[in-house]
Amino acid sequence: MKKLLLLPALLLATWHSAQAQTFVKDSGPAPATICYSRAEDMHTKLTLPAAFVEQQRTGQRRSTAAKIEVTYTGFTPQAQAAFRHAVKIWESVLLSPITIRVQATWTPLAAGVLGSAGATAYYRDISGATRSDVIYPAALAEKIAGQELNAVTVPDINARFNSNFTWYYGLDGNVPAGQYDLVTVVLHELGHGLGFIAGTSYNAGVGTYGTLPSIFSTYLENQAGQSLTNPALFPNPSTALGTQLISNNVYFNSELAKAINGGVRPRIYAPTTYSAGSSISHLDEATYPAGDINSLMSPQVGAAEAMHNPGPLTLRMFDEMGWFNTAIRHTKLPDSETSQNFPVTATIVSDGTVTPGSVKLHYAVDNGPLVVVPMTNTSGNRYQGVISNPGLNRTVSYFITAADNETGRTYTAPAAPRPNVTTVVRYSFVVGPDATVPVVQHKPLTYLFTSQLPYQLTVRATDNVGVATVTVEYAVNGVARPALVLTRQGSTDIFSGPLGATAGPVVAGDVLTYRIVARDAAANVNQALSPATGTYTVNIVNFKPAQAVYSNNLNSAAPLDFVGEGFSITQPAGFSNGAIHSDHQYYDDSTLIYQMLVPIIISPVVTTLSFDEIALIEPGESGSVFGQEAFYDYVVVEGSKDNGATWTPVADGYDARFRPNWLTTWNSSTTAAGNSNGVGTSALFASHSFNLRNRFATGDVVRLRFRLFGDPGAHGWGWAIDNLNVQNIVTSVADDLEAAGGLSVYPNPNAGQFRLRATFAKPTSGLELLVRNSLGQLVYRQSVAAAAGQLDLPVDLSKFARGLYQVSLGAPGDAAFRKVLIQK
């Protein structure tokens, strides 16, 4: 279960707002936690939260109350009603201006698992954050930021519930013996998605909390009060940290929670045997047993146990992390070439009441003493202070503080560092002549379909004194076109404009080259180029005429029949010829797609896609199947009959478990993080066939693509594909000779020795293998039987001369054919 707790790498997406705030998205999806069942009947029932009781009494919601929207998959009406009740309880105790979106799935889960949940993504560098260099789960990040960070169609929380349990669907908390209260489990799992999750992992004595700690984990301490995210004491990862995770002495150091708990830190579940998906992300079971008002977020839920209350400790822990917050929203001052007074403005958004006089500007010039300036409320929740003229050739650093009356806490912008991090976090700007070039961020194009032209090219450009212009210089087939001036999008750092087709035609087969030029607003203009030298190259492509059959040995990248990212037709070291290869190694949290430009027409007979492949893809949990969370990484062949609008798997995705020697290679060299250093070689190639008639009908025109999905947890060498063929197998006796898996010859070409493989609808006898030379002369005959419906037949033609031969399998007038090339 280790995969559920690995925090992924950072910095894959940047988000912008009209206020020029910048948000960096963690790669997600984020790890999930697990709620286990307890067999005993607890016969306990907690009181409802006072806020919920008041809401039910008056029928009115607070104007600032959170709103939670749920998308249900597989839920019965009874289960949905229980879920909605739990949602209303959370809505009554949370404050958020942004709708919290939940994807809830009703499905069989592992034995003893009631449910699992987690955030779909994490974010850092949030305007209004309580701590810097930490990651926040999506729902909490959006609440703090005061805006949507992901698309409104994307959930903030993914939650799954075990449809195989004996559930109690009532809303009254009177749970009968032997039944499990669904309202309780939904409340519990939503609590994890909202932020009660540490994101820790433990493997072979080594503990880790991911690339950056979650906001929850920054409050974790051992019994001696040492922060578990202190890198000097507990490097990440390390056995020292691992020892703490199984110490049975981990605490959540929240001043707000201690204030209602007699000054005592809430105790965290840290059993001496690490429980993946459970340890560190729950309150301690023994300290908060069934019936305790704070027992909801303990790791287990017993039968006949109703906990319709998050509990005061959990709510105050949430407040500490930012669910009750005073956000200081401020756009950092840019560098300036002019010596002057510098007004500093900030918008203060508080869930409470801002303490009078607490909004202050603190600044220093050239690391001198701090000057504190009270900020004046200019209108509504806007404040202003002034940094006095520092003179030329000076560096000014500053930060802003504010406090609220309800908690008495002081908030800062930029956010304060996490415990034991000594870095001083301040905004800064330079006054004086500028020599800094702009910074350009752009994902280069590698191909464009003609249907995408003109293409809206997007660039992010930033500069310490401001960006004046961003242009795109480009050429088609080496002939320059007029430069494209990109337009700034509002007040953001994003510049965009239409590329191609505006100054002349651009057609399939053309090659477009371009570079980006960004110039700043300095008196002496500074310029940045992307790429720094040369140009980006874009192949202009279109789909080719559809074919009923297709064959490509992939020994050459030309003609261009495939496009995509993360794949190329190449010949790595250790391989004797070219093939399609993914990135070696592929990346965590990535989706690589290679699309075939020749659509396939499905014929009235069996249409078979076959190729040789190596798939060193992270294996999922034992017993997991494609589509389940525990299946982890996979490769899959997909087809579309609606021009790419929707894609259907030709067959289930698969991983290294698909072939024993692939799994052996994966396991031959693995790291503590679960990555594999096993390397693909030509000896690992194996044939794979797919019957396209299983998914598509006669006459369908199908586009094909090859997709590699990598989740955040681990990665390996990747995928290779060679000798790709689409063939029509003629069969007149469908029941007796239905090649469901196709007929394949492997390897092909060969030196005269190969294997013939086929799958039949049922055990089949009376077949003949016939081989004819290029003149049509019969040169080899062998009787064949597929007793179990499967055929894997070695064939030896090494005594024959080199050349092209036809191999047929079947009966007279009822046979499938393949061509075999013998090379010596």
UniProtKB/TrEMBL annotation:
<protein>
    <recommendedName>
        <fullName>T9SS type A sorting domain-containing protein</fullName>
    </recommendedName>
</protein>
<feature type="signal peptide">
    <location>
        <begin position="1"/>
        <end position="20"/>
    </location>
</feature>
<dbReference type="InterPro" id="IPR024079">
    <property type="entry name" value="MetalloPept_cat_dom_sf"/>
</dbReference>
<keyword id="KW-0732">Signal</keyword>
